[in-house]
Write a structure and sequence with these properties.
Elements: E1 5-8, H1 20-27, E2 32-41, E3 47-49, H2 70-74, H3 94-101, E4 106-111, H4 121-131, E5 138-142, H5 145-154, E6 160-164, H6 171-178, E7 182-186, H7 192-200, E8 204-208, H8 213-220, E9 227-230, H9 233-255
Parallel strand pairs: 1-2, 1-9, 2-4, 4-5, 5-6, 6-7, 7-8, 8-9
Antiparallel strand pairs: 2-3
Helix pairs in contact: 1-3, 4-5, 8-9
Length: 256
């Protein structure tokens, strides 16, 4: 299906982002094709799924993710900030999310790092992926270009993608130099010409983060292969699936 739906940090419009509750809710939607998530390392080297470098916004913890070991991170409440319904949700490990999603949905795994913040992050993430034979089900993405290079050095066959919120003139060349076949880009940076150029080069393009139905419709007119990343997958369904249903219903009436 065109305009594949990517659930941003799971179904994070309803459930707390990057938790098992958000991922399970996304998987319950038959139109969700991809799930996006963020990975960092605990102090003792466990790949954990959380967006911020600090704990305060989405948990009841304090400090940096990298300064807490896995056992301590598991004790934190990562759900109450969203609503009382999700009290007790924990920070999941990458292993737990991979086990949940394997064979069911593709994963856009963001390597959440900056500089040398997480030595060994790429190796730890790849170990979990390879252990499960999921190399063909994931793309590793990052703002940090060095992380993408390291991932490719460790696993030349793994698919990688640059995350960017800019529009450099030589973007296609940059992607080629990084050996990236995926681009995650802030949606205001996109237009028809860029989409045509990149898809013609074999680059898959995902627009983030789109929660407005009108913007989804506008983006959909640029190119049929543009992927839409959203916190609200149900809005994607309303724009694309329900619109197609209404169109087919109208056509059937015309030909009767």
């Amino acid at each position: 299906m065109n305009h594949l739906c990517v659930a941003h940090r799971g179904f994070s419009g309803i459930a707390p982002e990057n938790t098992m509750a958000a991922f399970k809710l996304a998987l319950e939607q038959p139109f969700v094709h991809w799930v996006e998530l963020d990975v960092q390392l605990s102090k003792d080297g466990v790949p954990v799924v959380i967006h911020d470098f600090t704990l305060e916004r989405t948990t009841n913890g304090i400090g940096k993710v990298k300064d807490s070991d896995w056992k301590a991170l598991q004790q934190l409440d990562a759900g109450s900030w969203k609503s009382a319904e999700y009290r007790g949700e924990i920070i999941p490990s990458l292993a737990q999310v991979l086990d949940l999603c394997r064979g069911r949905v593709s994963l856009n795994i963001e390597l959440k790092t900056a500089g040398d913040m997480y030595p060994g992050l790429e190796k730890a993430v790849l170990r979990e992926i390879v252990m499960r034979g999921m190399e063909g089900e994931v793309v590793l993405t990052s703002f940090e270009r060095a992380a993408l290079r390291r991932a490719k050095e460790l696993s030349p066959e793994i698919r990688t993608g640059l995350i960017i919120d800019a529009r450099p003139d030589d973007l296609a060349t940059q992607l080629e130099q990084l050996h990236c076949t995926f681009l995650s880009i802030g949606y205001p940076r996109l237009d028809r010409n860029l989409m045509k150029d990149l898809t013609g080069r074999g680059i898959a393009v995902m627009a983030w983060t789109v929660d407005d139905r009108r913007i989804m419709r506008r983006l959909s007119s640029m190119h049929p292969e543009l992927m839409i990343c959203t916190n609200w997958p149900d809005r994607w369904e309303q724009v694309f699936l329900l619109s197609k249903h209404r169109m087919w219903h109208y056509i059937r009436k015309l030909i009767r």
